[in-house]
Amino acid sequence: MRATIQSLLKEDGILVIPTVADPPPKLNTKNKNVVNEFLDRNYALASIASMSGCCQVTIPLGKHGESPISLSFLAYYGGDKFLLDTILDVYASLQDQADIAASLAPVTDSNGIEPSEVMKEKGNAAYKGRQWNKAVSCYTEAIKLNGANATYFCNRAAAYLELGRFQQAEEDCTEAILIDKKNVKAYLRRGTARESLIRYKESAADFKHALVLEPQNKTAKIAEKRLRKLMKKIRTIQNKMVDYLRLLRCFSFTASRDWLFRQSFANAGLRSVTTNLSHTNSIASTTSMHCWIPKSPNRSKPNLLLVHGFGANAMWQYGEHLRSFTGRFNVYVPDLLFFGLSSTSEPNRTESFQAQCLSRLMEAHGVHTMNIVGISYGGFVGYSLAAQFPEKVEKLVLCCAGVCLEEKDMEDGLFKVPNLEEATEILIPQTPEKLKELIRFSFVKPIRGVPSFFLWDFIDVMCTEFVEEKRDLIKSILKDRRLSDLPRIRQKTLIIWGEEDQIFPLELGYRLKRYIGENAEMVVIKKAGHAVNLEKSKEFLKHLKSFLIDSL
Fold it and tell me: Spans of the TPR repeats (predicted)?
């Protein structure tokens, strides 16, 4: 035994052994068996230390049922001070853990009280005693026993708030609200959690809702007023930052990058043209579309239309691939309505209308047949153009375009975001925080540590015009959308998808492949997200060239 114990111990280590520290038997007890058993146990415990040549400390930790429990700590010979110092450091924590373990023991109650209520009361007592972890453990046990009680979730959220675990507090409050939509405390605590998570808009909404349920609630009144002032101050700072960036536009990284793309497109043999289109007899209705078109189109070449998605303008999304196609195609790169220099006074926000505008734009430039590449939202428009004008579209490439999504997919939890409102705030970012979210959703390995100054600069140049119109475009995509209403296309189609796309999950790509049928082929690019054209540029380009050029 001595060799075994010493082989387990290191000079700077401690061996922990579960033991039993029985109280001594009463004086003059007549039960000799009890006395002998106590002496045998004490001897055995003492023998561990003496036989191994170690120093030993045994700490009682209370009782489990009627049986006392303890831990023995053994240290290497001569490590008395080290052992005692260690015991002093861990003793309080051991006692807390023992209390928590004891509180989670099976509950037996003879007064007819539900076991879950007993655990809740234990949690309340721990909370009042400022034992937050113990309170969380008790409320958790109560939830296990009865997960349909909003109070248990709400109380655990209060303990989480004290521990600074705001995300868990928010989740518990949301559960409580799902169970009881009139639970004022749940709204108040969720508002507090969201404020701590710097989600002021959602926090203010929670406090407002609490006031609807309980108009005289002082906590909600104070918090709602404080947040209103805070958000007003933030908007003022943001506006000043935007104004400052406008003054420094000549030093803008985004504007400079945009200028370089313009030079690149011009050097590739394209020119910038804005075309006025007419859709109605109304004089007040005006639509104009900007497009990069060939300076000298060769009518013997096929035509290629590159349609962009949300985010930066078309130059940013296709600039890296442009020269790979200008030698073999007449390349056209338009700005969709409300992007770049394109706009309309028409109220129609559907991808169908966007497709009709593109068709008229191509007709205006003498293009009657074309191949189309559509990235994300551009894929929606490209698909619609192929469906409405099948005689004009020869081949179609759809990149991470969730054309087959349905309105119910949002409710079914297919997407990372909980609702359409949150999706629009991310896809049309107005703050650095939302732009960072968009980057995280778009890339498997997003760039980190980008200074807020550059993010503000990008937002100012790319994201501040036609904000409401762009939001309407997103809402129009999902409104009443059903797969059964989607027309089937017959053109040869290539579907390209990032395996880890978090905006339009890969399932939508497979769904689209099944829906189009034998005329579609699908390529899944590994270790790529939604921005597969940027993140895996070379592989993306290889598949485009194989599909569009090799068959010419």
Answer: 184-217
Q: Could you read off the pLDDT of 328-380 as tens digits, one per residue? A: 999 999 999 999 999 999 999 999 999 999 999 999 999 999 999 999 999 99
Q: Which residue has the tokens 């114990």?
A: 5
Half-sphere exposure of 105 (CA within 13 A, CB side): 13
In residues, how long is the chain?
Answer: 552
The verdict on 300 and 328 lying in the same domain is yes
CA distance 15 to 75: 6
Q: Does any domain span residue 247?
A: no
Phi and psi, residue 494, nearest 5°: -110, 125
Which H, E and C letters describe 3-15, residue by residue?
Answer: HHHHHHCCCCCEE
The candidate with the shortest Cα–Cα distance to 163, out of 130, 190, 202, is 130
Whether 141 and 78 map to the same domain: the answer is no
DSSP 59-98: EEEEEETTEEEEEEEEE-TT-HHHHHHHHHHHHHHHHHHH
In angstroms, rounded to a whole number, what is the distance separating the alpha carbons of residues 385 and 374? 11
Q: End of a domain among 69, 103, 137?
A: 103
CA torsion angle 414 498 482 466 (round to 10): 100
Distance of CA 414 to the CA centre of its chain: 13
Q: Mean pLDDT, the chain, as a whole number?
A: 85
Q: Please, where are the H alpha helices in 365-431?
A: 377-388, 407-411, 420-427
Tell me the per-residue pLDDT of 280-299, one tens digit each, with 9 for 90 and over. Answer: 444 346 899 999 999 999 99
Interatomic CA distance for residues 495 and 497, integer angstroms: 7
The answer to the question of residue 21 being in a domain is yes
**How many Å apart are CA 111 and CA 294, to the nearest integer?**
87
pTM: 0.58
For the domain that residue 169 is a member of, what is the CATH number?
A: 1.25.40.10
**In terms of C-beta density within 10 A (0-12 exposed, 13-18 middle, 19 or more buried), how is residue 150 classed?**
buried
Show the tokens assigned to 14: 């401690």
**Token pair recorded at residue 278:** 């007419």
What is the SS3 assignment for 17-64?
EEECCCCCCCCCCCCHHHHHHHHHHHHHHHHHHHHHCCEEEEEEEEEE
- Per the DSSP assignment, residues forming a β-bridge with 287 are 277, 344
Residue 510, domain CATH: 3.40.50.1820
- Amino acid making up residue 63: K
Give the domain range for residue 263: 255-277+286-403+488-548
Q: Which residue in 395, 383, 263, 393 sits closest to 319, CA to CA?
A: 263
